[in-house]
Write a structure and sequence with these properties.
Length: about 625
């Protein structure tokens, strides 16, 4: 804490210029208390509902324009869709086939910005192979040539859209590989399944870390940022929205301060798969937003790197969509499914049918078939797709839309993770026209926290390791997760060398990272750390159970948990893991959903929301 400058050096609308961005952007327990007081006392230019990638991006965009901004999230940052993606920043090769050229170009432009300017510490190149199916001797030679030409043209167009003659690509160009070269790069491919491949590059990201970094960057510019703050209704004067009723889900039971009003000149709802709930909230004034969102469930499997031998990822065609096999540190991510989901949107569940489908698809090209015994983790997320007339969710548009169904209320929906910044800019542009006198967006030139000086720090990582007495591998791990904020984590280790020890049950992570998550990244509960600040819940066969007690002890030291509170957090997390495991043994969506709902949300979100259909509530993502 910086004495005499407010909590964490934060004071009012604009940070103290003598305080660094990293300090001003700390989402500490003290900062949360201060921001809650601001929510109750002040009127904001823009209030954003939803702490997913679009909501956090909108808060950052608005704050960077000098507006007075607040962001409220019902659960944790990225608790919904934004932590359950394929972990890719990409243009989408399949959208070329659907002739959505503008969407591909837009996404690849954003990929270049993120990889080179905005978040090079979080977005980095990952190679993929497009396997070319093997034929049957000379008779199939013309077909093989045609397939190579077809796929090659598509991948070449991908490079062209990324701007091969421009700057800021951040990714190497594609290459054609022979059958022998393909097998050298990816030995686990069945020899009889491929006639060669095309190698291209896309971007990889830890989606949840990007979202919390966006939220922290917005906070560093003076935004009020509060999680576990659920919007429960709109405040209106005549036919204008003037604010939102918010419930603090961390407040003691029965507290008179638990629910309060937040005043705002403009409210932006970035609520993803909950967007349709706005229709029900506006029914009493006879308004229909004219925007429908369908939820498409995407399931991913995580298996150890040793289960598949390969140096690149794979992108495979399926009957309905595409399948990715993605290198992820010491693991592989395999996904995804693409099916309608009409059940609980807070905790979408993967069923045994989903898992069997993914295994069946990937095993068509692997020389050693995977089984359920290989699986370390499973996760399911919901894509918010703008609804159309198509029968298949894979054909629904990934375009986004911004509408103003009522004066003072803006909805942004649809889109894809990669283009979050474009969505954020569009909705804040709309708010700016209402507010007047607001400068244009500057987020295309605004590095996120941890990006400034990253290249130099990576170059000098061996020296940094020597100065702090840790292995170079530890510094590399931290740099790829925190960028230049690595110095903050190393400072914790300097003050307490015990924090340099590995986390119990998860040697890939340090104890210091848990402490840092609670001190600076807004983590309030055990699952926030085990599922989002780290990815232990999907990267270990124990799903984080062997790490739970150590993590609770470290978090409790920061958040003031007594023994009983630590035990409750561990008990809840164990129940959550067991419910997820049970759901993954169920034969279909209905049974899987019922099993997953056997564990209540740690924030009491599921218990008190009144159901998805309750018009008096507005869930966030």
């Amino acid at each position: 804490m910086v004495r005499g400058r407010g909590l964490d050096g934060y004071r009012g609308r604009v940070r103290d210029p003598n305080v660094s961005r990293s300090v001003a952007g700390r989402l500490s327990p003290e900062r949360r208390a201060t921001d809650l007081r601001r929510l109750r006392a002040e009127r904001f230019d823009v209030l954003v509902i939803g702490g997913g990638v679009t909501g956090a991006g909108a808060a950052l965009d608005a704050a960077s324009r000098g507006l007075k901004v607040a962001l409220v999230e019902a659960r944790d940052f990225a608790a919904g869709t934004s932590s359950r993606s394929s972990k890719l920043i990409h243009g989408g090769l399949r959208y070329l086939e659907q002739l959505e050229f503008h969407l591909v170009h837009e996404a690849l432009t954003e990929r270049g910005l993120l990889a080179t300017r905005l978040a090079p510490h979080l977005v980095r190149p990952v190679p993929f192979l497009v396997p070319l199916p093997a034929g049957r001797g000379l008779r199939d030679l013309p077909a093989r040539i045609l397939r190579r030409s077809y796929y090659g043209t598509g991948v070449a167009a991908y490079d062209v859209f990324a701007g091969i003659f421009g700057t800021g690509r951040g990714m190497p160009l594609h290459r054609h590989l022979t059958r022998e070269a393909t097998r050298r790069v990816f030995p686990s491919l069945r020899a009889d399944a491929v006639a060669g491949a095309i190698r291209y590059y896309d971007g990889q990201v830890d989606d949840a870390r990007l979202v919390v970094t966006l939220a922290r960057t917005a906070a560093s510019l003076g935004a009020t940022v509060v999680s576990s703050a659920r919007a429960v209704g709109l405040i209106r004067q005549a036919r204008e929205v003037t604010g939102v009723r918010v419930r603090d889900l961390e407040a003691p039971a029965g507290s008179p301060d638990a629910e309060f009003e937040v005043r705002a000149r403009t409210v932006i709802a970035a609520t993803g798969v909950w967007t349709d709930d706005m229709s029900r909230m506006l029914n009493d004034v006879g308004l229909r937003p004219g925007l429908r969102v369908r939820a498409s469930k995407g399931v991913h499997l995580v298996v150890p790197r040793s289960a598949i031998t390969g140096e690149t990822g794979l992108i495979l065609r399926t009957a309905t969509s595409v399948l990715f096999v993605i290198p992820w540190g010491g693991h592989w991510i395999i996904g995804t499914t693409d099916t309608d989901w009409h059940l609980d949107r807070s905790h979408p569940a993967a069923s045994a049918r989903d898992i069997d489908y993914l295994l069946k698809q990937v095993n068509t090209v692997l020389d050693r078939p995977l089984t359920t015994a290989d699986i370390e983790g499973v996760y399911a997320g919901l894509r918010p797709l703008l609804a159309g007339e198509a029968d298949s969710t894979s054909k629904l548009s990934r375009e986004h839309a911004v509408i103003e169904p009522m004066l003072g209320l803006l909805l942004v929906a649809g889109g894809k993770y990669t283009t979050y910044r474009v969505m954020a800019t569009d909705v804040v542009d709309r708010a700016a026209r209402r507010l007047g006198g607001v400068r244009a967006s500057r987020t295309a030139d605004l590095p996120l926290l941890g990006a400034d000086g990253y290249a130099a720090m990576w170059r000098d990582r061996a020296d940094l390791a020597r100065r702090h007495g840790v292995p170079v591998g530890v510094v590399e791990h931290l740099l790829e997760r925190y960028g230049t904020l690595t110095l903050d984590v190393l400072a914790l280790i300097d003050a307490d060398p015990l924090l340099a020890s590995p986390l119990a049950g998860a040697p890939e992570y340090l104890a210091a990272e848990v402490t840092y998550a609670a001190r600076a990244e807004g983590a309030l509960h055990l699952e926030d750390v085990l599922t989002r600040r780290t990815r232990i819940s999907i990267e270990t066969t124990h799903r984080g159970l062997e790490s739970a007690e150590h993590t609770a002890e470290l978090m409790g030291a920061v958040l003031g948990w007594d023994a009983a509170r630590r035990a409750r957090e561990v008990e809840h997390y164990r129940a959550r893991v067991e419910a997820e495991r049970q759901s993954q043994r169920m034969p279909d969506d209905v049974a899987a959903d019922a099993a997953r709902l056997g564990a209540p949300d740690v924030r009491g979100y599921a218990a008190d929301r009144g159901g998805d259909g309750d018009p008096a509530t507005l869930p966030s993502t």
